[in-house]
Amino acid sequence: MEGGAYGAGKAGGAFDPHTLVRQPHTILRVVSWVFSIVVFGSIVNEGYLNTPSEGEEFCIYNRNPNACSYGVTVGVLAFLTCLLYLALDVYFPQISSVKDRKKAVLSDIGVSGFWAFLWFVGFCYLANQWQVSKPKDNPLNEGTDAARAAIAFSFFSIFTWSLSAALAVRRFKDLTFQEEYSTLFPTSAQP
Q: Which of 5, 102, 154, 178 could anchor a disulfide with 123, C-beta 3.0 to 4.6 Å?
């Protein structure tokens, strides 16, 4: 596929799944998508415990329901965001307006940076609540592997989203230069 404005081929070009799958930002989105599934899946499946003496479930992270809610919410919303931007990656070559392509790349930068921050907050919050959890609340160590997995994949998500933002910035800078170059030196028709 030939280079065009903001990393897309010529507008209206045919969809090429092989090229889409080989792009680094697409790979990172899929990895981020999987990480978000691991985080919210771990917390939903094994993040809540109950004891025979108590009737209600409680969060494995220091009995703090906000910790579990934050992990699940960020995981689910990151999952949906990854799907949205994967769809945008598929649709991107069909966008004919350079301004719309620029908006898509700028939104990618902002959203990826925002999610890196949310994952950093989530990692710190879950790790802190896990650290202050009392062993008497979970004497059988039920769900500890899932709780640790959610913390670990929250940490890994910081890097995948940060790298996505960095790739989007690089993509924006490289392709802005190409756009300016083509504006200054348009290809003229050969006689």
A: 154
Angle (nearest 5°) at CA 17 between 13 and 22: 110
Sign of CA dihedral 145, 126, 120, 31: positive
Q: Which amino acid belongs to residue 69?
A: S
Which of these, 24, 8, 190, lies nearest to 98 by C-alpha position? 8
3-class SS at 98?
helix
Q: What is the CA radius of gyration of the chain?
A: 22
How do the pLDDT tens digits run along the chain, 191 residues long?
445 555 555 555 667 788 888 999 999 999 999 999 999 999 999 888 887 777 788 889 988 999 999 999 999 999 999 999 999 988 888 877 777 888 889 999 999 999 999 999 999 999 999 999 888 777 677 878 999 999 999 999 999 999 999 999 988 887 666 666 666 676 654 44
Task: Compute the distance between CA of residue 47 and CA of residue 175 in angstroms, rounded to an integer.
Answer: 44
Evaluate whether 9 touches 1 at the Cβ level (below 8 Å).
yes
